Q: What sequence folds into this?
């Protein structure tokens, strides 16, 4: 006998990423100052590219983590024991979704950026044109989770694979 499945939002922390960004900014500023005041060689200028590049990726991680946290903040998803109904609860608002109401499932996957992580989300489009965004912070495996996959069975899907996976609203 199957039981209902409940998914709860787990907020991701950005403290480590902020500390890394501050460190990279300080290295970047130190290299710039050494170029202008100490007459450092062009080698230092080339080395300066590395923290600038890493800082750009670190800023992306901070931004995307905040965006995903905001999209799923307080979200709770419950799929009934038959796998035919899903309840999405967020900010004291409840949306009941029957499988038959689903028109399309958009899966947005990100190419791996190594240490900088992978940020995936999906959008369930209902026949009433309502779009429900679910990030991996609430359902870690998204459409590949067995229960979610059972709920979304036989629904048309569109896959998007991007390097930088910002949520399109």
A:
């Amino acid at each position: 006998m199957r039981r209902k499945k409940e998914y709860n939002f787990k907020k991701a922390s950005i403290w480590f990423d902020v500390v890394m960004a501050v460190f990279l900014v300080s290295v970047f500023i130190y290299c710039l100052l050494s170029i202008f005041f100490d007459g450092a060689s062009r080698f230092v200028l080339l080395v300066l590219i590395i923290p600038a590049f890493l800082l750009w990726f670190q800023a992306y991680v901070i931004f995307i983590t905040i965006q995903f946290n905001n999209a799923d903040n307080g979200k709770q998803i419950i799929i009934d024991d038959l796998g035919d109904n899903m309840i999405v609860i967020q900010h004291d608002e409840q949306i009941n979704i029957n499988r038959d109401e689903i028109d399309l499932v958009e899966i947005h996957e990100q190419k791996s950026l190594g240490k900088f992580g992978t940020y995936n989300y999906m959008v369930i489009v209902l026949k009433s044109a309502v779009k429900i965004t679910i990030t991996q912070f609430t359902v870690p495996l998204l459409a590949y989770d067995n229960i979610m996959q059972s709920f979304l069975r036989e629904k048309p899907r569109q896959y998007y694979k991007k390097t930088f996976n910002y949520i399109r609203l």
